């Protein structure tokens, strides 16, 4: 087993060195006809910056691995253009328009924030170019707000919710949710509520708080009060992205005195440091580097440890998956990157990722993929709670609904 230690997000200077090298390699003198431009429009600054850095590193490592270090597909060089959304929907929309219009990008990837992603979707349709959404998760991205130029390699809220419902839902279980008050949190809770119906578990209270909340005393007390007089097993389920994750603060309020358990899905390693104090906690996750067993993930682990002295994290795998989808599509299209050609190529397309094989569902372009039911274990020399695999949740184990209006 790879020796691990928490280093937080990879050093910024090191990440920039890698990115600069790859960007330079993709920018060698070549005519426009010999270059394919990929715009990474993502939240480089703002509250989701930690996730964004991982996504960028994963994308770059993926392009390196999948092209054998050449950054070339079908005889054309890949050039990556980075745009910062700042985590703001209006900026994200403008940056994607700039990438497609002024920079003549062929395809785009991003962003992290679901709110930003929703603002960007119409731009892809306006320009008739493909946007690969990674890692924003709100169901509405491939649901009510979807258009045919949108593909998503990241998991959606329904996949998260169904996986966690399978892991936690049992007859008689009572659950209170605590989530952020925007598309990510509300879509996540709605999907979780629907997914629990077939398990016999029930949500008895929903608590929503602003994304910048730091004091969870009042909201924590409300979820505990909603559960304390319920019969049966009682769980507080947290859906959270970015900083100020409330799991540790809820744990400090001693829910065990009320015989209430805490639960949450997977997260980046720094956020999972709080999980170490909750051994036995169960949930479902999109990725943890020690779980998938395949050559691509082995390479990612080895190279990431070598270059950054840390294992690859949650969103590093996501960025890598986006790179795989793009390279696989461009190889199949023989380098043709217009929107209509890529749509025809990518609908139903399977592609390898560090998690294993994913496939874009034809109906809504959502990538169907495995998830992982985990149980947290604490280990003295590992700074985070280790999500030991309970079982792999295969695509056929999760009836992920088609939510668009196609």
TrEMBL record:
Pfam families: Peripla_BP_6
Signal sequence residues: 1-32
GO biological process: amino acid transport
InterPro entries: BCAA_transport, Leu-bd, Peripla_BP_I
Entry superkingdom: Bacteria
Transport listed as a keyword: yes
Keyword Signal: yes
Keywords: Amino-acid transport, Signal, Transport
Leucine-binding protein domain: residues covered: 35-379
Family designation: Belongs to the leucine-binding protein family.
Protein's UniProt name: Branched-chain amino acid transport system substrate-binding protein
Organism per entry: Novispirillum itersonii (Aquaspirillum itersonii)
